[in-house]
Automatic annotation (TrEMBL):
The chain crosses the membrane at residues 52-83, 108-130, 150-174, 186-206. The keyword Transmembrane applies. It is a multi-pass membrane protein. Keywords: Cell membrane, Membrane, Transmembrane, Transmembrane helix. It is found in: Cell membrane. This is LysE family translocator. One of its GO terms (molecular function) is amino acid transmembrane transporter activity.
Amino acid sequence: MTNPLLFLLAALTLVAIPGPNHLYITTRSIGEGRRAGVASALGVETGTLVHIAAAAAGLSAVVAASATAFGVLRYAGAAYLVFLAYRTLRGRDEFDGPELKPQPLRRVYLDGVLVNVLNPKVVLFFLAFLPQFVDRDAGAVPLQIAVMGVVLALIGLVSDIVYAVAAGSIGAWLRARPVFQRRQRYATGLVYLGLGAAAVFAGPAARRT
């Protein structure tokens, strides 16, 4: 790896910039509580590990080079986010009195994994970012990519958990006020729809960069 300190600074800078994963985790934490937010963070970064393994194995380059494979991944990710929006917006039966029943943590975790794995922008990110810090003369390029990816995932996990805990506190305040319950559900569903739309319409532009 060339310039480990430079890589670390770049990784910290990138993670500090709020992105779609932060928005997803924040929304989940506000809607379903701090534990759901943390489970989402763990799921998202597990998805990151899948991308790291794919990048190290060279599969990410194949997906990015194939318009069909990239399109399938992009639309699958968007469809899953729309499904989450639908499940949230139709969730009248998930109300128990004034409060929204949280989803089982296992489901929340798996949602986080799928949301990240089906995000083609993450594929492009690893292809664009990690190779800049690879030292080809040192050999073992897949190992270098894997190590840098794991470091990036760990930094991301810390950031995600901070967002989850902070948003969970906001969510607890809102859940103590029943007047916000229905609005909160609609807001959560609209955020998922927005992320799904971003996955579709920003996909072609992202692929050209």
